[in-house]
Amino acid sequence: MSAFTVPLIIRGQVIEDNWVTFGGRGGIAEFSAPDPHKYVKQLRLRTPMDLRDMYDVSFEEILDVLQELGERLRLETNPHMQRAYEASLLTSDLTPGLLRYTYEQLLPSYFQKDVVREIAERGVGINYLEGWVEHPLRDGRRMRVRAFGARTLHIAAGNGPVIAAFSMIRNAITRSDAIIKMPSNDPLTGVAVARTLVDMAPDHPVTKHLSAAYWKGGDAEFETQLYRPENLEKIVAWGGFASVQHVTRYIQPGLELISFDPKNSASIIGKEAFASEATLREAASRAALDIGAANQNACTSARVIYVFSGTDEPGLKRLTRLGELIYASMLALPEFISTKPKRYDPELRGHVAALRLDDEWFHVIGGEAGEGAVIVSRLPEAVDFAPMLSCRTANLVPVDDLTQVTAAVTAYTQTVGIYPESLKEELRDQLPLFGAQRLVSLGFASNPTLAAPQDGMEPIRRMCKWIVDECCEWPSGA
Amino acid sequence: MSESISQAAEHLRRDPAGFFGNSITRMHTIPRDELAALQLEAANQCFAEQRRTIEMVGKQAARVGLSTITQFDDLVPMLFAHSMYKSYPSSLLDKKRFDLVMRWLSKLTPVDLSGVDVAGCDSIDEWIDRMDAQTPLGLITSSGTTGTLSIIPKAKADAIRSMETWRLFFFQRFGTEPRPEDVTPVVDVIWPNHASGKLGHLRLAALLKTHFTGNDPSRFHALYSDAVSTDLMFLASKLQRAAAKGELDRLEIDPQLLARKDEFEALQRRKPEEMKAFLNRMTTQLRGRRIFITGASFLLVDMAKEGFARGIEKCFAPDSVCVSGGGTKGMVLPDDWAAQVKRFLGVREIKMGYGMSEVSALHMMCDHRRYHIQPWVIPFVLDPDTNAPLPRTGVQRGRAGFFDFASIGHWGGTISGDEVEIDWDTPCPCGQTSVHLADDIARYSERRGGDDKITCAATAEVHNEAVRFLAEFQG
Predict the structure, then answer these.
(1) CATH code: domain of residue A213
(2) Which of A82, A135, A205, B375 gives 20 to 30 Å between its CA and that of B138?
């Protein structure tokens, strides 16, 4: 029995026909969507010339369309978003409290004019999007540069309902054509946003260059027809290692991959946290927020936290006290930021339960009711199962000096939340060498901005085609 | 029964096979109620003893406030996850602090490890050999994808007991009382595997070598002559962990381990020759003899293929015994795999068993494809997410838990990673009275998230995929 339906949106057209069922395994609710094989030809943008209509639209008009779209996404008045919210209650790892906040507040907020303008200005430069920007060069030629859009497939991740919306915003401001492949654990939210846009402005070029569809990732028969340089110029892939790895088989000259690889995040807390009761409490509150936000489901969520507490007995005592404060702060977070997880990973529970019975190497605070836990290491090492940390379960690791914190950062590290600022400045020229991509004040890890580089690159610039017009003078009399 | 229930339960715990007169028919025709009463008493005896002698058991009992077991479900919070046997920092092995590993291990076994001499011990293999020599334990290790090594403090006596009961099931038929030669048969043992090692199934090899052959080691025929080194298994685990954490660029490998990696590669190169010699021995020297063979299904299928290629069918005496199990390790078996193996070996049936390292019992499949639980093991079906017990009535599907009250080296309560289905109420048409499992046992880890569920947070699951990719990449 299908729990819900996922229409297919192709450039302003809403398709609700040729239903087939998906999901129904591994905890994913069963749902229906139009048979993607019947629409693969229609999903292709026939010719890049069809993108021309985007260039008849001013940047301000694009902002207006997005702003109005954002206003129409309000849960209380939009039946498409209501259905998406209901579906996400079934499919998402997030709890109702978190989902409600995301749909009511977070999702619409990204479409606000000022927000989008800042994303475009910082992420590309509006003048490059709006026209040719001239730079005189040393040899006398005048170089003019413009950022063009591209035909792009976006493979969205499902661990947050906002990810498809990010793709839509980036697509509109770069004047690109997007096909968004919906994830099985959130197949409807992006479709609902696209459908709202169709209702609002069915013939607008922004609508005409947005498609949102579900097909099963790895469906080679479908993918080989679509993932080709004659149909697409770029693929933006979010997701786990396997899904990104899978996409690479289609990459060839003329079809570029922009990959948001799987990432984890960490935190570092300096000795300054122990200066006073007030600083200790502040550091604990900040860390609790970085762990607990979105129930630790985001790639920005803190998991292992290195603390300059010292590794001797007084140091471990300090660390345990910090752990208790972090645990208490985490439990006190409001329902729209963090809740008891929907389902506590049974394998992780086994690991935590084992550590609880033996205090020699690790001390466990909380976690008995599946609400989340803080594991305090009693040696300067993270737990062996650190890659499994989730469901609001963090590991505090004591360190004595800077050399020990480079372990916090690996090729898979995205965000590092650091307290205090002075320690961040001390570390910021070293950590990136090991792989950290975003250093942020502790407590703000899960509050990223789209106006910044992401995953060590500038994705919106990469989504553009950077075209040059060179104006050179022919020597007189030659 | 002339014994009091407490004496009877004690007897069942100490010598399950003897309690039933070494008869598998008696083991599996005892009325359910009668067995349940014995099991409850035996579980209480085991619990009363081990909560005092095993530190982790005492701590957990105190935490959950358990003092006596009045019903089977009381045991559920006392079932240990497999992670219990890897809850030490794996860096202790890197640093060769076997003294500290033993301090941790001693909390999981009643055996006093304080006198074990580990001075100068510089490899895991050597440490385990010393444990073998100096203690009643025969440690069992297994390497996980999180890069750690689990260590189960299994008593040698537990291993021997389980081997002796296994043997009863291999050479007896249900419904027929055993003759003496069915209890201690003498056969040639064909072991399509490494000759020794400290992994659960390799520990078995040493016991088969003596207990199935009338103590004639020349009748034990292993495919590969070498042991599987625990140090190499640990190295493999560490490589996996480093890849999983994105730390391959800074993985430091002990030069001693590195040297042994070369050794491992040499053994790998030798394998085709050893395989050839092994097949030759099977199809010439052992042809027509009564043999015992055990191995994972895919190994047996490979052997059958090789045999057919040499034009050989019905290779051994018809009263030979073949036992399989252990899953397919992700390989797809041909539908007629069992028929192929039987045709090659010349046996009437392939006996299938279900078991795990933590529990000293192999639950055998009957003619109706149901796995029957051995009488010294209490089975549980648990909610797969919360581990709460599901009712012990009707048909229940969930996570399997087991309590082996005969275990003396370690606590016998275990939560598995397996999804099972128990039909508590319907008697099995095979005539055995014991609790029985459906044959479609699956690993939860393989079942969950197999679809294209995408998340950008790098969970262990995607890490493990990365690990597999790396393994393929390096060929």
Answers:
(1) 3.40.605.10
(2) B375
